Amino acid sequence: MDTKRAARILAAAIAAQVFAVPGLQEWAGAEPVAVGERIEAFGADAEHVRLVAWAARRFEHGGLQVPEVEVHFHQDTAGCAGHLGLELGGRVSEIGRDVLLHEMGHAWIDQYVATPVRERFTELRGLTEWNTTGIAFEEKAYEHGAEIIAWGLGTRFLAPEIPDREPWQLVAAFETLTGVEPPPDREAPADPWTSGTPWVPTDR
Hints:
The protein is an alpha/beta fold. It is built from five helices and six strands; from the N terminus they run βββαβββαααα. The protein folds into two domains: 7-111, no CATH class; 114-178, no CATH class. 33% of the residues lie in helices and 13% in strands. Helix 2 packs across helix 4 (141-153). It starts with 6 loop residues before the first strand and ends in a 26-residue tail after the last helix. 39% of the residues are buried.
């Protein structure tokens, strides 16, 4: 990895039962595995590497540069400050496909989105704060950005956890933030994951 600022992703193991053993840290003796040129996975088994490779392909399929990250897998949420997803000071913790895309979205924003674009995106979303500490998740444009990247690049099976999430609103926001349209299909060539039914909002 070069000297460009990289996010560190601290990923919890997907199996829920491991959370019954608190306090475990990164799996001992784990050597990093290169996933492409810009990602290293630590503490990863074959399924973890497959998950990270899927996420990287989603960025490529969407026409976006893969963010430079290190993905660290843990057996519980201790490395995530008790959360399933957390980004703070370039360190990210996560679990699962959609949250992985969300947290890699934070890394992509940090590395590729300039201040003028952030300001336009914030205004488009009807918000006034980018990532101010102490305000609600749904009031931060930074979180909207990560949710919308995850929606645009992912399976679109789960609802984005933000307001104003009609498809046309999400598409407009994705284009403003990234400069490209979201991919029309939810699967990349040779995608190893089976996508679910597209999510359609019911709230008005």
